[in-house]
Design a protein that fits this description.
Length: about 290
């Protein structure tokens, strides 16, 4: 069942959980995500990031994502992650995406706000919802694990008072906040400031807060983040890593036997599915 980002986050708010948002950078990951969600009977956010365009074009995988969501037995939001231009957001909306993220976090505040307002106007016309980012979680993930965690000097923590004005003046449905997470692989234990999330929620009338850089966080910290008001958790790097590890292990056990890509991709998909299921159980407080 295809629903909007706003609708799925209303469910999260009502149940006091976070909805897992998983990037489908290929058909294998798309199937892994959806099979996990349907087996657990949990709502899910199916995402595609603009930085994954070199792997598979949005115009190719986007319609598959939307149609898969429509036929799903669970509520699904099809969401654009880290849309860097308004033109790219518009392309996703035309394909039927029900949520879009405009990422102007690297821009000056006023320019970020102006473009976010335009994104909200575009999305409203398409019946979709908008996530925006204030602060910066650091370098955007590429799936290759080269980011340096705490050593990333591009991280900027969200100012809750600035967030109050940004949410009020932009009309967004969800806000990605920087409170100590980072994109990519963690090289050291993250130091999370849950007080930022709590203050953003208090000053904005409990806007759903989005946690980027969710891979690599421990269960206890996930639960603290959810209690603080995180309602959407982006998760990709470690899911992708699980698929890569499974593919490598499968090939190592073949010795000199014939190697077929279809079998390798099936092994990767199975591993990603189990990784996604584990994450979804954590976000929904299910053991």
């Amino acid at each position: 069942m295809l629903i909007t980002l706003k609708e799925i986050l209303e469910t999260a708010e009502k149940r006091k959980i976070a909805i897992g948002a998983f990037n489908a950078a290929n058909l294998e990951s798309l199937r892994a995500i959806m099979e996990a969600a349907e087996e657990l009977a949990l709502p899910v956010i199916l995402q595609f990031a603009q930085c994954h365009e070199p792997w598979v074009p949005l115009e190719l995988i986007g319609p598959v994502m939307v149609e898969t969501a429509r036929k799903a037995s669970v509520p699904v939001c099809v969401h654009l992650d880290h849309g860097e231009t308004l033109e790219y957001l518009q392309a996703a909306l035309k394909l039927g995406f029900t949520g879009v993220m405009y990422d102007g976090s690297t821009l000056p505040y006023e320019e970020n706000l102006e473009n976010t307002r335009k994104a909200v106007n575009m999305a409203e016309k398409a019946g979709a919802s908008v996530e925006a980012e204030l602060g910066s979680m650091g370098k955007r993930e590429s799936g290759e694990g080269e980011n340096s965690g705490e050593a990333d000097s591009t991280k900027i923590y969200t100012d809750p008072e600035q967030a109050q004005a940004f949410v009020r003046d932009s009309g967004i449905d969800a806000l990605a906040c920087s409170f100590g997470t980072t994109h990519g692989i963690y090289l050291s234990e993250p130091k999370l400031n849950f007080g930022i999330v709590e203050k953003v929620r208090a000053l904005t009338g409990n806007i759903p807060v989005v946690m980027h850089g969710g891979s690599g966080i421990g269960r206890e910290d996930f639960q603290k983040a959810i209690k603080a008001g995180v309602r959407k958790i982006n998760y990709f790097t470690y899911m992708d890593k699980a698929g890569g590890g499974a593919a490598e292990e499968y090939l190592q056990h073949l010795n000199k036997e014939p190697r077929f890509f279809s079998s390798v991709s099936a092994a990767a998909r199975s591993a990603m599915k189990e990784n996604v299921k584990s994450a979804m159980k954590t976000f929904a407080f299910q053991d």
